[in-house]
Write a structure and sequence with these properties.
The protein is α/β, with parallel strands linked by helices and 260 residues long. The chain has helices at 15-28, 43-47, 59-62, 92-95, 104-114, 132-140, 154-171, 192-204, 218-222, 230-233, 238-253, and strands at 2-6, 33-37, 73-74, 80-83, 121-125, 143-149, 178-187, 209-215.
């Protein structure tokens, strides 16, 4: 099981949208996918059609009390399971804020789980802050995928993520973590600004920026309120097409041989 964190400390850049929709297309391609919702706001949980308050989050596991293998629940999509989030998770910031071993709190249980988990990919949907939950995710992941909104100042946020990862590596908890890719999101094809940001990210981060750019698409914005991924809500939309293409690119990067 490969652990991939969708992370950017900026909110509203498309982390959750990418986690659930990349997850949906990976699952449709036959990959066994587990999404870990690590945001107390539980947007991924709701988009996947589940009620956060009816499920157990990873909270107890991070406090050393839970058995992670009991947490995944099925979603409406075959091959796509979810460890839901709920408001309990916000307690982690307080409970572990002063814990000197906090970076191991997700790393350790996930390392144990990796060997037995019946999944190809674990996609972690990170919260939009630099708090304990987010740093624990970076410390637990094999790879980071950073969604970046096509707007002014996005690159500054990107630099901060690179610095943060260097700090995490330096702690020794997760020295091998890499930035697997950058996904440009919410591109508005009509503006010069979008084009400038895309060019700048490609220049600075060329080898890791995905060729696929996710356009701004009304259906992508609507799907979560229906408790649906774009694959279920509007499979013929431009947004769906983009996430399917992203999925293929992701699989190719991970060594899959795709039939045409
Ligand atoms: N490509 C897109 N086109 C239109 N709306 C989008 C797109 N990507 C995300 N959104 C919407 O923008 C908001 C923020 O996206 P989200 O994925 O929740 O960001 P994050 O998880 O980084 O906070 C959500 O309401 C989402 O539905
Ligand atoms: Mg989110």
């Amino acid at each position: 099981m490969k652990i991939v964190a969708l992370s950017n400390h900026k909110g509203g850049v498309g982390k959750t949208t990418t986690a659930v929709n990349l997850g949906a297309y990976l699952a449709r391609a036959g990959q066994k996918v587990l999404v870990l919702d690590l945001d107390p706001q539980a947007n991924a949980t709701e988009t996947l059609g589940l009620n956060p308050e009816e499920h157990t989050s990873i909270y107890e596991t991070m406090l050393g009390q839970g058995d992670i293998s009991r947490l995944p629940v099925a979603t409406n999509l075959e091959n796509l399971h979810l460890i839901p989030a709920n408001a309990d998770l916000s307690g982690i910031e307080v409970d572990l804020g002063a814990d000197e071993h906090r970076l191991a709190r997700l790393h350790a249980p996930l390392q144990n789980y990796k060997a037995i988990a019946p999944y190809d990919y674990l996609l972690i949907d990170c919260p939009p802050s630099l708090g304990v939950l987010m740093t624990c995710a970076l410390a637990a992941a094999d790879e980071i995928v950073i969604p970046v909104q096509c707007e002014y100042l996005s690159l500054i946020g990107l630099t901060k993520m690179v610095d943060l990862l260097n700090e995490i590596r330096a702690t020794g908890v997760n020295p091998g973590v890499v930035i697997e890719g950058i996904v440009l999101t919410m591109a508005d094809g009509r503006t010069n600004l979008t084009e400038e940001v895309i060019n700048e990210v490609r220049q600075q981060m060329n080898s890791i920026a995905y060729d696929t750019v996710i356009p701004r698409n009304v259906k992508l914005g609507e799907a979560p309120s229906h408790g649906k991924t774009i694959l279920e809500y509007a499979p013929d939309s431009k947004g769906a097409e983009a996430y399917e293409t992203l999925c293929n690119e992701f699989l190719q990067r991970h060594g899959a041989v795709l039939s045409a």
